[in-house]
């Protein structure tokens, strides 16, 4: 029965709105894991989706994926989740950790799309959903400085704050399906190391 509820390794889904600092926090976690002799594999969910979408000539970059039809995005989500688990089964053992960098909610042309719907959760079977949050004004400043991505449709700091509320609610809703714990981690400006330390402590207690 437990095999049905969980993968052999422990799965932690790390979510947060664009600009919240997930990449930085996850990078610091990898450094800390090495010192603690913990085996951690970090995967970006969007990268797996993007590779498939580009191969099918549906998009040219990551930001364009949000404007695909809903059904196509659902298909890409499921394919990505399957590939992530298949790849990780060859690399991770029991008591080792898979961290998946993704979004709990995605703003699309047709409304807000859940990043962790049931068909994705059925593949990933998360032990924990970690929600990285930060001050909305700090996120807005980070977004405006990031020239590598198109942030024009994320709007004001108030819009970002609203998106964070939606993301937190979506994370709790997704957690219900697999009795996943939900960890809220605040990534304060210039204190990403503290956020990483807090999250790795949560992970070790799973």
Can you lay out the helices and strands and say which pair or pack?
Layout: H1 2-5, E1 10-15, H2 22-35, E2 40-44, H3 45-55, H4 70-89, E3 97-101, E4 105-108, E5 111-114, H5 118-124, E6 128-133, H6 136-145, H7 157-175, E7 181-186, H8 192-204
Parallel strand pairs: 1-3, 1-6, 2-3, 6-7
Antiparallel strand pairs: 4-5
Q: What can you tell me about this protein's structure?
A:
This protein is 48% helix and 17% strand. With 206 residues, it is α/β, with parallel strands linked by helices. The chain has one domain: P-loop containing nucleotide triphosphate hydrolases (Rossmann fold, 3-Layer(aba) Sandwich), CATH 3.40.50. Strand 4 and strand 5 form a beta hairpin. The longest helix is centred in the middle third of the chain and has 20 residues. It is globular and about 40 Å long.
